[in-house]
Amino acid sequence: MTILSSKKSSVLLFLIFVFLGIQNIKAQENFSMLIDPDFTVNIDPDSRWSYNFNLSNRDIIYEDGEYNFDAQHLQLSHFTSYEVGFYSKLSLGVRYRFKEIFDSDSQDEVRIVEQFGHSRKYNSLKVAHRTRFEQRLREITTYRTRYRFSVELPLSGQRVDQNEFFIIGNTEALFSVGSEERPKLEQRFSVALGNEIWAKTKATLGLQYRYEDYTGDPASELFITSEIILSL
Amino acid sequence: MKKLFIITFILFTALAKAQDKKMEKEEGIDREEMPENAFFLIEKIPEKAKRLRYYYQTDGEDVSYETKFKFKRSIFSVEFGKDGKLQDVEVTLKEKQLPEKTLENIQTYLEKNQERHKLEKIQAQYLPNSASESAAEKLFLKSLSFDTQQPDNYEIIVAVKNKGKLKKYEMLFDENGQFKNEREILRNSYDYLIF
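^ inputs. structure came back:
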């Protein structure tokens, strides 16, 4: 098999997986499907400080057994990070979710995030760990702890060159508490196919499956995620 | 409003292709795509070797080929030029596999010149002393017994931190651990994996 066809077949396999995944999950109750396009700018100058800006939007496309387009929110976030040790970063972030403009019954959300990230490359595999503490200030205040484990693998050769594909997979565990709600556990799984479309620009397209409140009133959501990432 | 979101979505997800231009590239290839003159050596790779892979790389001008495999718990990289001539053999080593005195010299050099450092990867480098096939074969066999045969150099990837600034270098030390030269490596940002 030539390299070109093996590259094509991995992309094809990914698409088949995506399609079958959606068909399977749709059969479940309490299920919705959403899209979440993201635009991210990462600024990493030659110092210990780095900055991250993100604009994203979320819309429901399938809910209660039928397809329906319903915008959820528009979100702006910013993180400032400080490098510690050889492979880690401490970050402080703030996030604003515009929800009221789409639904007058809901309130905008402000979120404050403290984060610790650790990332390293082992041969061709990139591995990243992320721990976050979040304060979600909305109608009610929720405190959330989350941990995410991510890996990235190039699909051709040992590193991602321009125009080459890569796969990112991650899983995240979340635990929320608040004085006005029952503690909730949630698990997320994501897989995304990425391509370095231009120098310093990556694009990814993927799926994220969220299994929410699995010890109480379970619900599942499937996100179709897409992201353009500029690294300056 | 809906339309606006659909448009943003399409814009964000449009996978555009960059124009062709000179650039670095490295990719996996099939065994048959290796240069013909490299096969006399490729055939000498021990049967016990695992994870045998072939790569092609270019920096836009020079082209080289590489065979990688795992043998005696170390990863071997055998690099060939465009014409299939052997360029070098590199074998990954753990710190404890280096002669004590050599490692001590390397550590002393780094401690003297850097505030903090971390050895990320150590490779024993074996260089052919002539371009002949017999020299290449001899060298390759020598590298296979890396546990007893001293290499020509040690190539070390080292992360250093000075005044809080993190940098990465590829440093070359001779067989006794004396510093020869260094080259700064572009440090990758993994922010896109974290956020």
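The helical segments of chain B are 2-13, 39-42, 100-113, 133-144, 191-194. Residues 12-21 of chain B have pLDDT under 50 and may be disordered.
thumbs up if we can close this ticket
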